[in-house]
């Protein structure tokens, strides 16, 4: 049965059940996404103040067959936060439910509402000398509900895991409007199926997360940064294994960068000072965080000596101050902006098994060369096998010149990733952008199970219709 | 519709589809569980050699409506590994599928079949200087499939997480016989619902795990152990927070022990040398594992000095050798045996939020005293909020004298755990022992979602019928 629109009659019916000013006409910012690919058909947004109000909204939508688009910070990159076609859905934003409910330093835990902004959760943890390790470029606007709905990744995944690994418990409104009160702060709880992990990463298609119990981590007493020149991606991976042998879990970031990234920085952001005249073909930026009494710079220099001896690094800089560390990270953090200024023909958020990174890199370039001439910027969270593999036009041409090759490039990259046992969406999710990819590359038994679960829990298909699974 | 029995006709039909000697009469060891509470009604066991054979078995059971009991090492403590009533099910053991398929030291990963024994996986990791951190008393016989099916816990959870946290990917046969090929070795993969976490911990009620990609960890270069006397459980938790501040994630075990445990050791295992004449009321046994160049004994002595200064510890021993460390752990490891020899009236595998441990301990004793006179041995993985809270008769009486009080004791303990936001099954799962508890204490919306998922994926209810959810 097709969904019903969130029209005037529906809005009147729902408004009668909610406090004044809960429903409003949607603004432009609620109907867009960062890449400007799509605009939402939604006309109304609900801004509930409590879990009970979310429950009322979902129950009414279930009764009337109106679709719901759960909206967090709206920073997603795959169109999961809007519906560009079909009957107008109701947007449900949790921006009014943004409280940090409680912080438990002795337990290393915090309980927050799903509308809380990531940076605010980070600050609340820092206030009690703890770390909430989830960290990514959009942390100033991304909200916890969206971050968990999409199982966000980011910089610190190597040490602390993905968003799902930060969660002790959830509260959520299920597609029939019932409320699952699962906000326990337990490290061990084997009482039945793990709904928490089932909901996380389903992009709002099985319910709306309204609150979360989160793990906090101890704050490393001292951190250190090194920028190391490596002879090859394979050497980078062997360096990582060596570093983990020496430093255990204390490595919080291990970013592989190709020369192209630095060339783009020089071209588009020439004011950023680079630590070399000619960037090396491959380099690694790594961060470590150690306990009290340890000296990160010394540990990194010990690592450098061993790695140099083993021909795994040829040159390098160990930051001797926080300012120097920040200067090195500034380069990495501006790479996305430089990329945007150059203008990619096609960008790929992919992962492969760590051991397959060298083969992926050595095969992807020649495969793409058969489709044309490109500049390739390959960089990313190599410690997680997660590369941002972005394809750019050669100087003198623009991405507009290659619009008709975009699909062929994407398929070329994704086919190779799939062949190597990788993922065509490492961090960003499926949303609406990658529904076709999921159908092409997904395991058939898994897809069938997903559809069965979706139909059983959301028989009318009201929750984020068309995201992840075709509506 | 009731299930059909795995009778002679069924066995003939299934045998015709499988190699000789795949089906056999079940032996006594396949039909028992460690606590001797139940005996299985099963008469036949299938011993497949491949995932395809598992698929054939499950598909045939789905067609005929015959129940399946997936069997790992058979070490579970809640009766999930047998069906004591109703039509005879077919036992499916993966003991012939026990290969370590591949080990990837550079990636810190390994791929194993589900029948692999935990100790063999630990050895395969150690052979390449890596650690597979899952560790528990039954590791010499527990198999990976059962450990993941039950989301096993154990000693190292504080540092490395539960069984589910060790898994990168799974291969599994779903209740219709289809095979999910999900053995990816990826750290980041956001392509659809996380079937991996859905299957883990469902105790075989949604499918049979046939293989797993597992995470390995770097092996700590140097480990250290301390046995510390603490003035109270609250001091123990503040000590843990202090220790995590100083030592970060390097604390791999933090076991709280009450004097009763040492009294039982002295009574039942007098040859075990204890490090004191009179055991303290509360003590903590902690382990740390550090990177190269660090000195664990020195780090523990620094911690001891700070904790002593803050009145969090009153006395303590820092092991100065591996032998001394092992001698301390021997005490902890023999506590279960001493408990068995004394004979508990009722044992409880519970968890509460870390901050609620002191309140739980201070309220549970007086609440139980209203039911009679007891000796209580409270010990366990305090770093995870997971306590084994066991109730024993006073000297001169035996557990047989209190059989009729068992339920009242259990309810008293579980009601308090529930009130404090805890779990009545921290590590061991639901199996058949705790189906009533799940119904009593489980969140109604969660239970409804579990039943919906179970019915949708396993409409005939053939997978481990009666475990977790009432059949």
From TrEMBL, chains A, B:
Signal peptide: none
GO MF annotation terms: catalytic activity; FAD binding
Keyword terms: FAD, Flavoprotein
Gene3D superfamilies on file: 3.30.465.10, 3.30.70.2190, 3.30.70.2740, Vanillyl-alcohol Oxidase, Chain A, domain 4
GO biological process: respiratory electron transport chain
Presence of the UniProt keyword Membrane in the record: no
Cofactor: FAD
Chain ranges of the FAD-binding PCMH-type domain: 37-219
Pfam families: FAD-oxidase_C, FAD_binding_4
Family, per entry: Belongs to the FAD-binding oxidoreductase/transferase type 4 family.
Protein name: FAD linked oxidase-like protein
Originating species: Mameliella alba
